[in-house]
Structure formats: structure tokens, C-alpha cells
Sequence to fold (205 residues):
Amino acid sequence: MSERGFSTRLNAGDTVFLRPIGPQDRAREVEIISRFSEHSRYLRFFSGAPTLPDAVIDQLVAVDGYTHIAWGALDLDVTGAPLMGVVRAVRRGRSDEADLAMGVLDCHHGKGLARLLMAAVVHDALAAGITRFSAETLAENAPARKLFKAIGAKAAGRDGNVVTYAFDAREVAARLGEIGAGEAMEDLREALAAHPLPRRKTAAA
Fold:
């Protein structure tokens, strides 16, 4: 999957490399989790712990592009190109629905990274036959809820402080196309067009 990666520049001036992530990014996953602020880790993982169990890290990098799709942004302005953010979709069993999750380091908020990475994940998810997304976020996570609503999410339930959102994948793709993310979004479109994934149907279909 590495040949689908490309470099671009964010509106804020950061030089980044976007690509699907996988087992080779295990150390980067561990590092980015440790670099989240305690509050951001709580919002993302519902826990403020600076580390996650090895089994959870193993799941985060077990990406196959079909049941688990994940794209990351690597910071080319920093030695070692650490992860700046990751968006992932994990299929529910053999269905056409996937759980959507995102995390961008505090210092890179407001740069359009979440939208950019989500556009890549949604593109690959549609190619893999995923048509619906579900995402859970804490009620206090205003930025995530604002983004979810902007891309067409509908509140589907609430359990205490956890709000569940439901998305139509095609609507999300269309909304992200309308919102855009400047030159970086154009670079993403060109990269995805240059290396298209074969469309695959779910086993249930």
C-alpha cells in the first residue's frame, strides 16, 4: 500500500506525507498516543492513560485495506517523520458498516488534517464495499461533534456521556468534497486517482 502515499503541504505550511498505515507503523502508533495531551487521550480513547496495552496497539496496526482501513499523516518537518494524525474505519464483521475513529495531535488541530485523512479513508471504504459508518464520541468533544455534523452525521443514540453518530459513506464523501482542505485535498484526489483500489463487495452482499 505504500505506493499510494504522497507528499503535500497544508495551508498552515506543514510538509506532510499521507499514506495508508500498517504494521510497520507500530512504533509511530505508540509514540503518537504518548504525545496526545491527557485530555485528548481521554476524548479519543475514553482514557487518559499515556500507553495502551500491546494487544490494542496490535489491533491498531492490523490494517488490511478491507476490514480495517487506516490513513496517517507523517510530519516531514520532524526527524523520523512521526505521525501527526490517523483516521481509521474498522468493518463490523462481514457487514457494509464500519466504525470510524480519528485522532490528530493537539499541536496540529485546525490544519484540515482530520478532513484530509477522513477523505482518504472514506474513498477506500467505498471501494471496499463499506457504505455506512458509526462513530462514538464523548458529549464534551465539541470539535469532533462539529466535524461529524458538518459531514452529514446523525445522532443515533446516547449512553451516558457517549454519543453515537451514524453516517452514510457517500454523503460523507460528498460533504468532504464540498468542504475541501485547499491544495492538499487536490493532491489527495490526484494520488487516489493515480492508484485506484479495485472495488470489492462485502461478503454479505
About this structure: The radius of gyration is 16 Å. Helices lie at 26-35, 38-45, 54-61, 113-127, 142-150, 169-179, 183-194.
